[in-house]
Amino acid sequence: MTKLSTQYLEEAIEDSRPFAANGSVNAALPTFDDTMKELLGVTIITPDFKIYRAGDYNQYVPMQSTSKIIGLMLALEDFGKERVFQTVGMEPMGDFFNSISTLEAPGSDKPFNPMINAGAISIASLIKGQNVENRFDRYLTFLRDITENDELQMDETVYKSEIANGARNRSLAYFMQSTGTIVTDVEEALDLYFRMNSVMMCAEDLARVGLFLARGGIDPDGNTLIPAHHLRTVKAIMLTSGMYNASGHYAVEVGFPCKSGVSGTIIGSVPGVMGIGVVAPAIDDKGNSTAGGALIKKLSKDLNLNMFGIE
Ligand code: GLN
How many domains does the chain contain in total? Predict the structure, then answer.
């Protein structure tokens, strides 16, 4: 078995970089264009806080859908599992992450799971606070605590573009209002969701979220921020739905919980072993980073991280 080292990680990056050619950069995101296609950065942090970095690990990008796991943690903390899963399902969905038709599927009165847009917007509608600023403040404080990075913040340009390009998400939200899935203010839920997507992160910040999950909710100072039983739920749902409609493929080929975003972000969490953060902006048609996906598959195989066993 390969031993984790910075040199190994640098070689793994070079092996994975060519997979960027199979994807394209999400031009809907401000400042994102083809010049970013070859970027690939990774950070791995182990429970004893050893840090391994390689490639473009300093590149900040909007966290996008990796925010969905943070929202789920807060909602579980606010309401507990039973209430949260009255609002959103916990089953995988074989459709695209922003699908609207599945909201209307016979027998489905709620979004399939919290990792798709509809599910995350309904989760945002639950997060407690007096107003959207206060609710977002809770989210950001929690994120800063987990990552130990007090400088994390939302990018205004990204936020404005989420609003400007948010017709699809608005349709999902208003549809869910019509079926009674969203019972609080719809515009406020959307506003919170847009802000959550717009927080800028680099590979190390993402790795720290993965590590927080891997350590069962204990922050770097040893405080329990979220009970481990809630994180068990989050990790299980990441494994079954975190990579959208490629989650089954990643469960087989990677075998640990992951969450992707359309900025090419991936958070990986190997329980008890490590947190992984990846930034590689070229994504495939399902919304997952191509080079990033290749990299986590390689890491899983080389470092023997698949919880279901070796290949
Ligand atoms: N901002 C994107 C959206 O709401 C995030 C989706 C994603 O990362 N998959 O559609």
Answer: 2
The answer on pLDDT for 100 being more than 90 is no
Q: Which one of 142, 176, 197 terminates a domain? A: 197
Q: Domain of 13?
A: 6-64+200-302
| Closest atom, ligand 1, to C-alpha of 117 | 4
Residue 1 has a pLDDT of 76
**Active-site hit among 25, 42, 65, 198:** 65
Please compute, for residue 34, the number of CA atoms within 13 A of its CA located in the half-sphere on the CB side.
Answer: 2
Distances (CA, A) of 87 to 126, 127, 181, 197, 293: 9, 12, 6, 21, 30
Q: How far is the CA of 261 from the centre of ligand 1 (A)?
A: 7
pLDDT, mean of residues 118-139: 97
Domain annotation covers residue 32: yes
- Ligand 1 centre to CA of 66 (Å) is 9
Q: Is 300 a catalytic residue?
A: no
Domain annotation covers residue 74: yes
Q: How far apart are CA 290 and CA 75, in angstroms?
A: 30
Q: What is the ipTM of this complex?
A: 0.93
Query: Which residue, of 181, 197, 213, is where some domain finishes?
Result: 197
Mutate to test the pocket of ligand 1, among 247, 262, 267 (most ligand atoms within 8 A of CB): 262
Shared-domain flag, residues 83 and 163:
yes
Are 181 and 226 found together in one domain? no
pLDDT, position 267: 98
Q: What is the pLDDT of residue 107?
A: 66
Q: Is 76 part of any domain?
A: yes
d(CA 311, CA 309): 7
And the tokens for 78? 């606010």
Among protein residues, the one whose CA lies closest to atom 2 of ligand 1: 64
Residue 258: is its pLDDT beyond 90?
yes
Ligand 1 centroid–CA 3 distance in Å is 35
Q: What is the pLDDT of residue 106?
A: 67
Task: Say if residue 193 carries a ligand binding annotation.
Answer: yes
Does residue 152 form part of some domain? yes
Predicted pLDDT at 104: 80
Confidence check: pLDDT of 173 > 70: yes
Distance, C-alpha 225 to centroid of its chain: 19
